[in-house]
Design brief:
By secondary structure, this protein is mainly α. 82% of the residues lie in helices and 0% in strands.
Length: 78
């Protein structure tokens, strides 16, 4: 399970680098933060239950953040 968090770190690093190359600094910084979070968790060697609960918490925060942004921050398309 710890190895999967390191894999998530690699994928978020790739997305962050592409965002950085495209000039999307806020998105790049967000994904670099996620990369550091996932890699750090990958090397903590927690129990499998802890990894699953951490991932659930991450997904809840991510979905709530995306929903808030898409409903309250983005403008309506015309």
């Amino acid at each position: 399970m710890a190895r999967m968090f390191r894999v998530l770190g690699v994928f978020t690093l790739a997305i962050g680098l592409m965002a950085f190359a495209g000039g999307l600094m806020e998105m790049a910084l967000l994904f670099f933060f996620q990369t550091a979070f996932f890699v750090l968790l990958g090397y903590l060697n927690l129990s499998e239950r802890s990894y699953i609960l951490t991932f659930w918490g991450y997904m809840i925060v991510a979905f709530l953040g995306f929903t808030y942004y898409s409903v309250f921050v983005m403008e309506l398309p015309y």
